[in-house]
Automatic annotation (TrEMBL):
A GO term from the CC aspect: cytoplasm
Protein's UniProt name: Fas apoptotic inhibitory molecule 1
Compartment(s) where it occurs, according to its Swiss-Prot or TrEMBL record: Cytoplasm
Origin species: Onychostoma macrolepis
Keyword Transmembrane helix in record: yes
Entries under InterPro entries matching the protein: FAIM1, FAIM1_dom_sf
Length: 250
């Protein structure tokens, strides 16, 4: 016996395709399903209409499947982790594609909120971390209901910025007295950061280069800078804690 039109209407096919995940086809009656994907592209197929959401890393959508209506809540569309000298900061972006709402969180703290925006595309500029680093989220329309979200740091794409940053900073991860420490050296200024704090330092010239001294708790630390003797490799920086060399993080 065939289902009545009313019963068939309650059954909706939802096709979800997430990058790195298998194709999933599921049928639901009246109710809702929470779909969360860490992906570049997530596709929802509801009532024979294809709606494509393009984003950088994360999308969370709540789809109500009932009498033919569709309701979406949870406007989080992108999450980025940005490694700066004072730490790794998480940037979250909410975008309401019906109201134009834009909300930006840094490390869980709301820094920008615009509840009503007639223009759904555009950009938002703000600053991140103790280094006051400039960041911009670009909102671009792809087609129809599709939007692309990209993050720029100091005018560069996040990928390009991180590639360049790896050339001008050195990072060490270590545990001292049960505390995880992230030590970052900015090679151009010789500033040293540890767990978000800029360290007091004292530099001196030695026979084979320079030494920059600072302390972490009761531990004497030193970053030595010596020439590699090779133009391509340039200066080699080494962290010593109580005289013991610490391997640099990749």
């Amino acid at each position: 016996m065939k289902n009545s039109p009313k019963e068939r209407k309650k059954e909706r096919a939802v096709l979800v395709k997430a990058a790195g995940a298998d194709l999933l086809l599921a049928k639901f009656g009246a109710g809702c399903v929470d779909v969360v994907g860490v992906s570049c592209v997530t596709i929802f197929w509801l009532e024979e209409k294809l709606i494509k959401y393009t984003q950088t890393r994360f999308i969370s959508a709540l789809i109500w499947i009932g009498t033919g209506g569709q309701k979406m809540s949870g406007d989080l569309v992108a999450v980025w982790d940005v490694a700066l000298s004072d730490g790794v900061h998480r940037i979250e972006f909410e975008h309401g594609t019906t109201t134009g709402k834009r909300v930006i969180y840094i490390d869980g703290k709301e820094v920008i909120r615009r509840d009503w925006m007639f223009k759904l595309v555009g950009k938002e500029t703000f600053h991140v971390g103790g280094t006051n680093t400039k960041a911009t989220i670009n909102i671009d329309a792809v087609s129809g209901f599709a939007y692309e979200y990209t993050l720029e740091i100091n005018g560069q794409s996040l990928k390009k910025y991180m590639e360049n940053r790896s050339k001008v900073t050195s990072t060490w991860l270590l545990n001292l007295d049960g505390i995880d420490c992230r030590v970052v050296l900015e090679k151009d200024t010789m500033d040293i950061w540890c767990n978000g704090q800029k360290m007091e330092t004292a530099g001196e010239f030695v026979d084979d280069g320079t030494e920059t001294h600072f302390t972490l708790g009761d531990h004497d630390c030193c970053i030595k800078a010596v020439s590699s003797g090779k133009r391509r490799d340039g200066i080699i920086h080494t962290l010593l804690v109580d005289g013991m060399e610490i391997s640099e993080s990749e």
